[in-house]
Amino acid sequence: MTAGLAPAALKQLLRSETEEVAVLDVRERGTYGTGHLLYAASAPIGRLELDIDRLVPRRGATVVLVDEGDDDTRATDAADRLVEFGYTDVRVLEGGMAGWRAANEEVFDGVYVPSKAFGEFVEAECDTPRNTADELVDLKRQNSDMVILDSRPFREYRRMNIPGGVNVPGAELVHRINDLAPNPDTLVVVNCAGRTRSIIGAQSLINAGVPNKVVALENGTMGWTLAGHTLEHGQDRVASDPSSGARAWAQDAAAQVGSRYGVPSIDAQTMAKFRDEAETQTLYLCDVRTAEEYEAGHLPGSRHTPGGQLVQSTDSYVPANNARIVVIDDDGVRATMTASWLIQMGRRNVYVLADGLAKAALESGPEQRAVLGLSDARAAFEIAVMRLVGMLPGRDMTLIDLTDSQHFKRGHIEGAWWTTRRQLPDAIQHMPETEMLVLTSHDGIVAHLAAPEIGQHIRCPVKVLAGGTDAWVAADLPLQKGDSQMIGDQDDVHLLPYDYPEPEIEKAMLSYLEWETALVPRIERDGVAHFDVTARS
Question: How far apart are CA 24 and CA 52, in angstroms?
Fold first, then answer.
């Protein structure tokens, strides 16, 4: 049997400066968002095979699994699965979240809480300058000399942005600022959707010694919307690659930041040693460059973790505390700036790989993620897109979509039913009898994982749509919108303010901003985080 761990023992483990532990909450992400441990990563049991190798690459690491408690069996079910995959120190939080609450421990709603709280801590401790939306509008009306830099990933920027804003994801700000604002009299405004990336982005430039006045846009695009101003949509203004002069300035600035915050660098020999020791201490290799740079060539075993997003959501990228984190780029700027923030967040064993890409043998292409427990013989059970097209008119089969509920509502194959992998055995009891069951999901992987499980509950053949719904879309076939034929709890997604229906967005924004600005006292009550923005030298 998997060992249990009492709440007090887990709290002590999380406070350790040497012991590794990764806390994984295996409930659905929507439920996770209603209340979880501060340093618990969201790892829904229905996606565990897809996520576990990325979240906890070392099989000997201590993994603590959390579910709701009481009659919930997800933690023990997940533990059995991890043991099958070779994990040797798997434990279950005794009593789950119910036991944690009963022990009067702090419970946090929302997502990316450590990073969100850290952003608020930085603003309070550093007194990061900020402008309101109305102040920015007044400056624009006065034709003030300024640049507006949107520090989110391009996908988020393209959805909506402050008028005139240029997309410069967080880790790119210091790297490119010298070209974007060569005149020291130019006001630099940094924004995101809410607060964290605006604050961290602005403070990054200040820490780097940018001569310009730098401010964060208070409450980002949410504050802009709430003030009654209009956003742009579908823009593609992206900062160009830094010039040689901008890169030289950024390297010098980042080196000074690294010295100030005690960012250690390692050479290739030390990196090889870390790799050799990866069976005894977890090693995360975080390449913080752009996706295009990563795909052109990266170190084997490294993962694409854009610097701004790594700081924004550490629990999603590096959940094992006291693990080694090696941050990688091509010239030290983005890696050093990112590492400086991880150190200030209280992460230990953070390093920058010096000249890490200069002489190493590199791999090209997108990141390859391991999916544990996926059958090598899965192709034999697939059904091609065009064959499914031919079967749809006769309806001699039932199609079930296991993608997340929000994606299903935005577009699914006509006639498909929706449920989650865990609810699938119960859901089929409410569907018509069928001669064949066809499963699909975003890219088909979750459907493949679910197929042998559901095959034990029904007599008809079970097939998987080859390539999933992505392949359907790639074949230029239509999707149907709507929420009909959805069975089971829709608790698999945590909605952010912009995900709500139009009448509810403003209320959701206000609630979100109120939540975010109230995090620091709750972090202090919890007593595990050790934020420190003071210079080390």
Answer: 9
Task: Please tell me the predicted confidence (pLDDT) of residue 1.
Answer: 66
Check if 117-254 and 378-474 are the same fold.
yes
CB-CB contact of 388 with 463 (8 Å): no
For residue 486, report the phi and psi dihedrals to the nearest 5 degrees. Answer: -105, 125
CA distances from 60 to 20, 89, 279, 280, 317 (A): 10, 6, 7, 7, 18
Largest interatomic CA distance in the chain: 73
Q: What is the pLDDT of residues 236-291, one digit of tens each?
A: 999 999 999 999 999 999 999 999 999 999 999 999 999 999 999 999 999 999 99
Q: How far apart (Å, rounded) are the C-alpha atoms in residues 412 and 403?
A: 9
Q: Cα 74 from chain centroid?
A: 22
CB count in 10 Å sphere of residue 365: 10
CATH number of 3-109: 3.40.250.10
pTM (global) more than 0.90: yes
Q: How far apart are CA 15 and CA 67, in angstroms?
A: 21
CB atoms within 10 A of CB 369: 11
Domain 378-474, CATH homologous superfamily name and number: Rhodanese-like domain (3.40.250.10)
Q: CB within 8 A of 282, min separation 6: which ones?
A: 20, 22, 56, 57, 58, 61, 320, 323, 324
Sequence-separated (6 or more) residues with CB below 8 Å from residue 189: 131, 136, 146, 147, 148, 149, 214, 215, 216, 217
| DSSP annotation of 494 | P
Phi, psi for 108 (deg, rounded to 5): -115, 130
Tokens of 214: 């730098």
Q: What does the domain layout of the chain look like in residue ranges?
A: 3-109, 117-254, 261-353, 378-474
Q: Which of 13, 77, 10, 8 is nearest to 43 (CA)?
A: 77
Reduce the DSSP state of residue 52 to 3 states and report it. helix
Order of strands, sheet of 214-217, starting from the edge strand that comes earlier in the sequence: 130-131, 214-217, 187-191, 146-150, 166-167
- The percent of residues above 90 in pLDDT, for the chain, comes to 92
> Which residues lie closer than 8 Å to 368 by C-beta, 6 or more apart?
none
Q: CA 421 to CA 426: how far, in whole Å?
A: 10
> 117-254, which class in CATH?
alpha beta
Domain 261-353 CATH (choose: 3.40.50.1240, 3.40.250.10, 1.10.1240.10, 2.60.40.420): 3.40.250.10
CA dihedral 197, 200, 203, 204 (to 10 degrees): -100
